[in-house]
Structures are given as structure tokens and as C-alpha cells.
Amino acid sequence: MTRKQSSLNFFEHVDELRDRIVKCLVFIFCAAVFSYFFIDSILAYIIQPIGQIVFTSPGDAFITRFTLSIFCGVILSSPYIFVHVWQFISEGLKDREKRLARIYGPFSIIAFFVGAAFAYFIIIPISLQFLMSFSTDYIVPMITIESYISFISTMVLVFGIVFELPLVLLILTKLGIATPAFLIQKRRYAIVGILIVSAIVTPPDFVTQLMLAVPLVILYEVGVTLSKIVYRDEISKKKTAHPS
């Protein structure tokens, strides 16, 4: 391959990436516009666990509606985005890796929504109940709409992403990049990394950080278990293909 052909291929990939990003942004915009028509109902549902929230500047209520619409647009568009991500990545993969992408691509979408639902229906209510329990007659909670929506959206997105961890470890094992022994050996470093990530991406309170860290550790162990199963299958296939 000549240098000119190599450069052309690079710019073709850049153009394709740009086109895919534009398509995803257009889809998110359309989904956000659609969500805005239902934004008051969505807000009422989200605010229900704490009853009432306030805003402290004239533009907060509108900006929050706008931000929440975009967030809903991203959530609704996530399957479409995942498809484009997998399609773009698969072009640089070998045939075996492409097969894995086709098999596990849909599972990545499911894992994201399971994580988001786990955050919204389990983690967030427990966190709110614990944190709100510290209010008294003279310590009255006045939660702003901006901080509340930011808390909800951050937790939902973060949990949606971290629930991909077992799938990532499984795929790495399938590709021969990682082994169960390697994952077990690096468990201590993984736990330290999990604690650091939890401290960075969650609000600055110990309870919320712990409620992200614990599921992440469990997900890592689930990933190790899946890695063991896949690794045994791969070894068994090799022995069958090349009997001694």
C-alpha cells in the first residue's frame, strides 16, 4: 500500500466518523424535541420521590427543562448510537472479531438499560432516603432543580456505562487479550481503580460513592466468572481442533 493510499484511507475513516457523529447528533436532537413535549410529565415523575424542588435563578427552570430534554434524547437515542459505534469499530476488526461484535453488540445495549434502570429504581431511592433522613425541624432541605436533575442524570448514565464491565471482560477474554488468571491477579488494582472512579463520578458523599463502588466490585467478579467460563470453552475448542 502506498503512502498516498494510506492517507486517503485515513481521511475516508475521518469522514465516515464525522458522518456517523452528525447522524447521531441529529437523532439525539429529534429525540430531545420529542421529549420536550412530555417534559413536564417527566419532571413530575422524577421529582415525585422528594415531593418538591426549588430554583434559585430565573433561568434555572427553563435551562433544566432544556438539559433534561437532551438527556432524555441521549437515552432514547442510545440504541442508535450503539449501532453506529459498533459499525464503525467493526470495520477495523478481523472476521472473528466482527462476529463477536455482532453477537455481543445487542447485549451492550441491554446492559446499558439494565444499569440505568438499576440506578433509577434501586440506587437513587436508597441514596435519597438516606441523605434526606438527616433533615430536622431546623435543617430543612431545599433542593434546587439543577442539582437534583444533575444528580439523577449522572447516576443513571454512570450506572448504564459501568454495567458494561462484565461484557467488556468477557470480550477481552474471547479475543485472548485477558485471561481469568490475569483478572484475578489484578483484582486489587481493579478495586483501587473502582474506588477512584466512584469518588470522581459520583457526588461528594461517602454513601453514594459506596453505592457505586459495591456494584462495580460485584460486576468485576461477574466478569471474572464469565471470563472463566469463556476461557474453558476456548481451551476445550482448541483441544478438540488439535487433539494430541
Please explain how this structure is put together.
With 244 residues, the chain is mostly helical. The protein has nine helices and no strands. It has helices at residues 3-36, 39-47, 60-90, 95-132, 145-162, 165-174, 180-185, 187-201, 206-241.
Strand-helix topology:
Blueprint: H1 3-36, H2 39-47, H3 60-90, H4 95-132, H5 145-162, H6 165-174, H7 180-185, H8 187-201, H9 206-241
- The N- to C-terminal Cα distance equals 40 Å
* Strand percentage: under 5%
Give the H and E element order: HHHHHHHHH
Proportion of helical residues: over 70%
What characterizes the major β-sheet?
Answer: none
Low-confidence stretches: 1-8
Mean pLDDT score = 85
How many strands in all?
0
Compute the number of helices: 9
Shape label: flat
Task: Provide a concise account of the structure shown.
The protein is an all-alpha fold and 244 residues long. It has 9 helices and no strands. The longest helix is centred in the middle third of the chain and has 38 residues, at 95-132.
Overview features:
single chain, 244 residues, mainly alpha, 81% helix, 0% strand, disordered N terminus
